[in-house]
Amino acid sequence: MSRELLLNSFRAAVAAADPLETLAAHLPSPARIEGFRRTFVVGAGKAAASMALAVERHWPADAALAGLVVTRYAHGLPCTRIEVVEAGHPVPDAAGEDAAARILAHARALDAEDLLLVLVSGGGSSLLSLPVDAVPMAELKTVTRQLLASGAPIQEINVVRKHLSRIQGGRLAQATRATVHVLVVSDVAGDDLSAIASGPCAPDPSTYRDALDVLARWGIVPPAGVAAHLARGAAGAVDETPKPGDAVFARVEHRMIATAHASLDAAARVFEAAGVRAVVLGDTITGEAREVAQVLGAIAREVATRERPFRRPVALISGGECTVTVRGSGRGGRCAEFLLALVRALADVPGVWALAADTDGIDGSEDNAGALLTPDTSARAAAAGLDARRMLDDNDGYGFFSALGDLVVTGPTRTNVNDYRVILLLPEAARG
Fold this sequence. Notes:
Layout: H1 2-15, H2 19-22, H3 30-34, E1 39-44, H4 48-58, E2 66-72, E3 82-87, H5 94-109, E4 115-121, H6 124-127, H7 137-150, H8 154-162, H9 171-175, E5 179-185, H10 208-217, H11 224-234, E6 252-258, H12 260-273, E7 277-282, E8 287-288, H13 289-306, E9 314-319, E10 322-323, H14 334-345, E11 352-358, E12 370-373, H15 377-383, H16 388-393, H17 397-404, E13 407-408, E14 419-425
Parallel strand pairs: 1-2, 1-4, 2-3, 4-5, 5-6, 7-9, 8-10
Antiparallel strand pairs: 9-14, 11-12, 11-14, 12-13
Helix pairs in contact: 1-12, 8-10, 10-11, 13-14, 14-17
């Protein structure tokens, strides 16, 4: 029962972020659509294909529509009026570079009588990679790998990406004369438009100097072309990204169609319907995965041992993207890392259930969305000869939970509102 309750709550979180259900209400009205000569759709992210399909389903049949979106490999869907391209994520590749170049060319070809409909979702920073001329794709790949392995938060990673790009950091909006209508599925804590997919149509408050500071803060020595370009930008020899207040953004409207908080609320309703109090701790809980596990584990321990600050039964729900500083050679994304650290933090606390999974269906680069912790996880691990401490040190959360049969596998969900975490604490008589 408890396992299925956890899984159902995760399914509800994902369903609340499904563009096929949420997007239509945010499209321009038919009357407004008629006022444009033509509409071109562009987009990038793990939800790009499902967003494009939703647009096609709800667009007036007699209204002009064409487009091009790029999504992660295996995330495509069959569309008839909008072309869907698949490309590399989390490390960019030539397919994404080509798609981004074509998207930029289409945007530049539009004029003031046209509408540019932009579909933005998590993963777009990698998928919409179009490096500046001074930075070869090989160098962009290298610095991306360095940033991903460093433990830097996504907002800081995207500061660097924006200053190496011809299309991100507001430059897509800057490139077109069309009216720009942006629909957003947010995977970023706080729903910061400048950070989601590196903000192709949003003002960018960061600078080249900020990008250099990010690299220095995380001990990254970038490839020569990257270093030279950022240094030239910091010296004023390269144009900055468009900033808040720039006139170009007077033509741009953003609408948020799915957020992490809405998904957490949907999951909470599943627990409430089952008679379990649901406490949403927030959608901005970020930091090193194992450190977040220590904090949330301490709250769970207080509930389990002292019935405060909440009485059981209670589900402690949280969202937000954790980071992992890669020290070992194991397999496992941030959700598995969090959960494995939670196993260690709560090993002596009976009756704890937990789930951590990414709403896009992919934890890091593995084939699972996340994993489950059960009251007998530690005992089963010991019987199987699994050393939780050693496997955590090796960043091998995937290996740990795979061996126990406790991975959560969904396949691509074609949406992304970041990680979903829940710790379920039941009364003594209901721990089953």
